[in-house]
Amino acid sequence: MVVVVPTVCSWNCEGFPFYSFSLTFFVLPWPCVHVNVKASGRVTHTSSSKVPSAMKRIFNRFYDKTGLISDPSRRSVASRVSATLVNGAVVFSVLGTLGVDMSPLIATAGVAAATIGFACKDFGSNLVASIVLNGQSSLRTGNTVSIGTGTGAVRGKVADWDTRYLYLQSAEGHLVHVPNSIILNSIVILEKEVEDSALDDGARPQKRE
């Protein structure tokens, strides 16, 4: 997602005019991630922003090789957040090196952030929730969890995870999208396979004559 905030604020950097809306274009890039659900139930992601996607792949490979984050779903969330922070830091560093006055840029970015936060409050809450929940071992890929209570509870096996949704594969084969903000404010139960636990305890099913 690229946000353009046109204003009348402008300044010169070594003879070249810069406008706040053009700088905001670079400061606020966010990969527009589209989730494609195939007939097999597999979740694939495509990004319309190549640079953040490349940076995300670098962090994903780093976390994988070093073993810092072994779970693929948690690694995906951490890589995307890390890539966004690094991209922002690089842009601010380059502009500072060029001698660009950062005050108008910071003011414009603040206005843009407030506008985006108000218009996309659900997206922001899901993003923050994904960061908070990233350390939860119960939400690892392959775990069977139950989220919520009563008739509104959802149950399934964790298939994938990003900054917006947790994807659960239900027993019926459906792919359920659960917003991260709902998970953060709901009861999460990590379920274990009853048959496997019973066999581990030495219990065997009785064969009827």
UniProtKB/TrEMBL annotation:
UniProt-listed Pfam families: MS_channel_2nd
Mechanosensitive ion channel MscS domain residues: 125-188
Keyword Transmembrane part of the UniProt annotation: yes
One Gene Ontology MF term: mechanosensitive monoatomic ion channel activity
Main localization (coarse): membrane
Subcellular location: Membrane
Keyword Lipid metabolism: no
Keywords: Membrane, Transmembrane, Transmembrane helix
InterPro entries the record matches: LSM_dom_sf, MscS_archaea/bacteria_type, MscS_beta-dom_sf, MscS_channel_2nd, MscS_channel_TM-2
GO cellular component: membrane
Superkingdom of origin: Eukaryota
UniProt-listed Gene3D superfamilies: 1.10.287.1260, 2.30.30.60
Bilayer topology: Multi-pass membrane protein
Family: Belongs to the MscS (TC 1.A.23) family.
Name of the protein in question: Mechanosensitive ion channel MscS domain-containing protein
